[in-house]
Design brief:
Shape: rod-shaped
Radius of gyration: 46 Å
Number of strands: 8
Order of helices and strands: HHHHHEEEHHHHHHHHEEEEEH
Largest sheet: 4 strands, antiparallel
Number of helices: 14
Strand content: 5-15%
Distance between the termini: 82 Å
Length: 345
């Protein structure tokens, strides 16, 4: 045998065919015989018990009868049993390594898998068959009509009524305390005038002029919409007496509601937001800090926010387009027995 048989691993041996395995075993056996003959040549040659007349016996000692070696690979049952054991052990070891590699344990004991869970049928109660988006009553409306769906006529009437009430009370008190001076008369705020007032506020926000001085907006070289809508003194007067509730009954409501001055209008706004939109299956809850430094009982200080001071609102929005469905003003820790919006969700 000229070339030495190369040693192979058990895994490589199992990958060989039956004929290749038999050939490998035969060559390995021949190599072992040749190594034994090379190591002890004098034992056979100098053995006194062997004479020259016994060449057949010498040849029998030098040769190994192949029939003495049991061919375990000739039996298909033994071959299958060996392969099954090896393969099962390999699969078990591979499975254990894969499971160890694909499962991560968090500090709190939560197990995270790198592989996605097996797919299963979605429960019937989790299938939404209604298409999300605006309701059918608002699809063909103009911009102003759509705004009226959110800030409807009922809300406008409340603001107009309470603003006129506050202005008349203030003017009446001033006239009583100053009878010798010309009497002041409040010009009632009308629906058309209130629409113009809202238009000025919206335009100032769109043109990023909300932080400018009001006098700058009514300059001759400024945007002409403000001057064409109303005089600056009238704008100041409406802003001064603008109210959203009855101030005479507010002290009783403040005992149980810190945001009593705007609660009625806020609830109507939430109802209108939900009534004209069908949400999708993906909703999100997050907080908003509305910048405000006025006097309230629930002004929050949040140093991580850009504005730092303002009114904190929890919103439930559609995650697809950020449409607000409902909001809750945070007025502090809720009393016992009353759940907040975040606790309910």
């Amino acid at each position: 045998m000229s070339d030495k048989v190369r040693d192979i691993s058990s895994a490589d041996f199992r990958r060989l065919t039956y004929e290749q395995q038999m050939a490998y075993m035969k060559r390995l056996h021949e190599e072992c015989d040749s190594d034994e003959n090379n190591d002890n040549p004098e034992i056979i040659a100098d053995d006194p018990e062997l004479s020259d007349d016994e060449p057949a016996l010498r040849s029998d000692l030098l040769q190994v009868d192949d029939s003495d070696i049991e061919d375990v690979y000739a039996d298909p049952d033994i071959e299958v049993e060996i392969d099954d054991d090896d393969e099962s052990s390999d699969e078990n070891s591979d499975g254990e390594s894969d499971s160890d590699d694909r499962v991560l344990r968090a500090k709190d004991g939560t197990l995270w898998k790198l592989t996605s869970p097996s797919a299963h049928q979605t429960p019937t109660q989790n299938i939404l068959r209604q298409r999300s988006g605006t309701s059918r009553t608002t699809k063909n409306l103009s911009v102003s009509d759509t705004f009226r769906c959110i800030f409807n006529q009922v809300m406008c009437n409340i603001v107009i009524k309470e603003t006129n009430r506050k202005a008349n009370e203030v003017y009446s008190k001033w006239n009583i305390s100053n009878p010798e001076k010309p009497q002041k008369i409040w010009k009632p705020l009308t629906e058309e005038e209130f629409d113009g007032y809202l238009g000025i506020l919206i335009t100032a926000g769109v043109r990023h002029s909300s932080s400018e001085d009001v006098k700058e907006l009514w300059r001759m070289d400024a945007y002409p919409l403000y001057r064409a809508t109303m005089a600056i003194n009238r704008f100041w007067a409406i802003t001064r007496f603008l109210r959203f509730d009855n101030a005479n009954t507010r002290p009783q409501r403040l005992e149980s509601d810190k945001a009593a001055a705007i609660t009625e209008l806020w609830l109507l706004l939430n109802n209108n937001l939900r009534a004209h939109y069908v949400p999708s299956e993906c909703l999100t809850v997050d907080e908003q800090l509305f910048p405000y430094r006025g006097r309230t009982r629930f002004t929050q200080y949040m140093p991580a926010k850009p504005a730092k001071y303002g009114i904190k609102i929890w919103w439930v929005c559609d995650s697809l387009n950020s449409y607000p469905l409902t909001g809750q003003i945070y007025t502090g820790k809720s009393p016992k027995g009353i759940k907040t919006l975040v606790e309910i969700l």
